[in-house]
Amino acid sequence: MSPGDSNALSEATEVFNADGAGEVVILCEHASHHIPARYKGLGLAEADRTSHAAWDPGARAVSLALSDALDAPLVASRVSRLVYDCNRPPEAASAMPEKSEVIVVPGNCDLTPEQRAERVDTVYTPFCQAVSDVLAARKAKDLPTVLVTMHSFTPVYFGEHRAVEIGILHDSDTRLADAMLAEAPRLPQRRIARNDPYGPEDGVTHSLRLHGLENGLANVMIEVRNDLLRTPQDEAAIAEDLLVLLRPALAALKAGRQANA
């Protein structure tokens, strides 16, 4: 699937397969390292503008593969998370970070309230509105919905190697995460863990809370170590692995709903 296949495209957000009838809605908040010209590269070196600090390498490609396989709508940000991290609320310092790991972001230092508000209005609000529109359309059609957010993470963070390969993250609603983790023995070649390398205490479940919990939707955040996503073949293989976890987990949730109906 290419950008031209998206149902809706704006500077801030792209929506793919908006009318998908599958059970999953996918969000990819860190899909792009694009920095709009008005921000003048945030004062960063080119290498930093395209590094993992600026986006989640491979996450968009895996999201597109899952969207195709599950007939799932996908909402993806088209702006670097260093401009605005769509998985953070406006009041969070990390929404427009002055520093990401060891990278100082000059263009985010000493932002005025007006400058912060402009980024909220032009990046975060359109993303959230696109998600709300997709969810509202599905509710109007009475389509069962679960929320999946897709991310990748660096294998080395502050000099420490991360052994986990696939993280299954959740906030207070553990239903989908529990069901996926129950399938982890089907992927013995993968190191899969709960709330690793991040958890709710790190502030990473904002989208799950805002778009999932507040709408009563089962939800999960998936993190994949980005050294496993270096080529299109890698991305396709990880997408297949995630489907090994997701498909039976979705079936288990559906069976549970039917039993309680």
UniProtKB/TrEMBL annotation:
Keywords: Hydrolase. The keyword Hydrolase applies. It comes from the Bacteria. Pfam families: FGase. GO terms for molecular function: hydrolase activity. InterPro entries: N-FG_amidohydro, UCP029730. This is N-formylglutamate amidohydrolase. It comes from Phaeobacter gallaeciensis. The lineage of its organism: Bacteria, Pseudomonadati, Pseudomonadota, Alphaproteobacteria, Rhodobacterales.
